[in-house]
Amino acid sequence: MIKVGIVGGTGYTGVELLRLLAQHPQAEVAVITSRSENGVKVTDMYPNLRGHYDQLAFTNPDTATLGACDVVFFATPHGVAHALAAELLDAGTRVIDLSADFRLQDADEWAKWYGQPHGAPGLLPEAVYGLPEVNREQIKGARLIAVPGCYPTAAQLGYLPLLERGLADTSRLIADCKSGVSGAGRAAKVGSLFTEAGESMMAYAVKGHRHLPEISQGLRRAAGGNVGLTFVPHLTPMIRGIHATLYATVLDTSVDLQALYEQRYASEPFVDVMPAGSHPETRSVRGANVCRIAIHRPQGGDLVVVLSVIDNLVKGASGQALQNMNIVFGLDERLGLGNAALLP
Ligand SMILES: NC(=O)C1=CN([C@@H]2O[C@H](COP(=O)(O)OP(=O)(O)OC[C@H]3O[C@@H](n4cnc5c(N)ncnc54)[C@H](OP(=O)(O)O)[C@@H]3O)[C@@H](O)[C@H]2O)C=CC1
Ligand SMILES: CC(=O)N[C@@H](CCC(=O)OP(=O)(O)O)C(=O)O
């Protein structure tokens, strides 16, 4: 059994990891941390997990206890993994970080977007960006994984086939993305109140969102050169889900884009290219580690619209983190990620 530690077990992504790991046949959660709920039984806070974690209680983060685990997930705000990762890696523990601490390869760029100095630039060269559809070989056996962000997962999976084949005008890409409110985390914020977000929709961070450099980094790698990306996130009145509407101008209108996408993702267990003309709904991926994609050419011209949906807490965070764990340890990457796609 793989001994798992989770730092930040009371947050939305932490409890989602618990839900998924409860069904994993080769992993057991040994340590789960929370400073505010130290000593509280996990099932007292989350009765939905009764019968799975009855002996487990939250503890304060402690590197000695965490360092005895085979793998530690960080489901924490930015900066926490910077402070603790090196010590855990020295202890021989693998680190899978759900925060953005190791996603950007450039420490100065990270500092600019996150408003604080990068806390562990020395670890960046070995951090692997955990998007299995791109980096599966590097993830195998890696010690430090940076799990992609939620918007970046939906946007990159939607754009990659076009860009890898040089089929899009990369100077003008537009990602119009909508998120459910759980994307903002569990901490109390006025903007997340039901009375504020429950029956309203708004764009935010149009001037520049911290996921812009992350998406651009991935698209640059795919395209082999610079990209001009406009990314506009929106907050929508749903709990889970990301819906990305991705626009691009195609350079060769004779290419069968449906066939291209189907071939690109044919062997990917968690990417579903839907029939041409489909409109994927966020509810079709709720609770599932799946990205559903549909390709449109509205007037049959050179404008392509790609629709890409995920559950921000699953393929956008904890499910993708677990997929990475499976790959790191040489397991079938579908373990523990089985059946939620069949929810209505
Ligand atoms: N929500 C989402 O859809 C997604 C989130 N992410 C990222 O995953 C990470 C977690 O997100 P989310 O679950 O939403 O966050 P939450 O705010 O819901 O939870 C944060 C957790 O971290 C713990 N924590 C906070 N500060 C510290 C600290 N200094 N040291 C140790 N533990 C701490 C909290 O518990 P306590 O304070 O009790 O210790 C809590 O359990 C973030 O970096 C987020 O950006 C990534 C993709 C999607
Ligand atoms: C709706 C909402 O507020 N979403 C968050 C992004 C989700 C997230 O947690 O960001 P990471 O994936 O980088 O960790 C935001 O815009 O800041």
UniProtKB/TrEMBL annotation:
Top EC class for this record: oxidoreductase
GO molecular function term, any single one: N-acetyl-gamma-glutamyl-phosphate reductase activity
Chemical reaction(s) catalysed: N-acetyl-L-glutamate 5-semialdehyde + phosphate + NADP(+) = N-acetyl-L-glutamyl 5-phosphate + NADPH + H(+)
Signal peptide, first to last residue: none
GO biological process, one term: L-arginine biosynthetic process
Subcellular location field: Cytoplasm
Main location: cytoplasm
Enzyme Commission code: 1.2.1.38
Keywords: Amino-acid biosynthesis, Arginine biosynthesis, Cytoplasm, NADP, Oxidoreductase
GO annotation, cellular component aspect: cytoplasm
Pathway where it operates: Amino-acid biosynthesis; L-arginine biosynthesis; N(2)-acetyl-L-ornithine from L-glutamate: step 3/4
Superkingdom of origin: Bacteria
Domain called Semialdehyde dehydrogenase NAD-binding: residue spans: 3-142
UniProt function note: Catalyzes the NADPH-dependent reduction of N-acetyl-5-glutamyl phosphate to yield N-acetyl-L-glutamate 5-semialdehyde.
Similarity section: Belongs to the NAGSA dehydrogenase family. Type 1 subfamily.
HAMAP family named in the record: ArgC_type1
Protein's UniProt name: N-acetyl-gamma-glutamyl-phosphate reductase
